[in-house]
Amino acid sequence: MKKPLYTIVDVKKTCNELLQTTFPDITVYGNGVYDGYTRPSFFTEILETSNNLSPYQRSRGYSYKITYFETTHDEKRCLEIYEEILYVFGIDVTIRTDERKIRLLVDSIDFQWIDTNADKMQITIDFADTVQIGGRTETEDIAESCETVVRKESEGE
What we know:
The chain contains 2 helices and 7 strands. It has helices spanning 8-22, 75-89; strands spanning 27-30, 41-53, 57-69, 92-96, 101-114, 120-127, 130-133.
């Protein structure tokens, strides 16, 4: 199989940069930070929702989750942040690697209230599966001709 066009690290890095650019006053953390974080802040994680591999193509899908930790709960502010994320992530996200730019299509964006008091907003961005064609190369000789025989069945047989 060919090297992937982009990696899961590329997806998370691009999404985190887009989030940080959109909200420069809110710190973005990965999901490995448990202590010493400031509020308000975003905790982000990337999940692979599908990974199908065949000899000729690879299909992968991702979900990017953003959890917003406020200083004090403000539903209006949460919904404003959600609306801004809807606008910024929009239809697609452009992944930039050293070799190319790839548009990753957004399948859906939604949010839910989580935690004990349902006072933390978690936004999920689901990306459409992308398919990379290529991989295994046939090693057999190329056919130079093809013969087709058509037989007519006789009536009554």
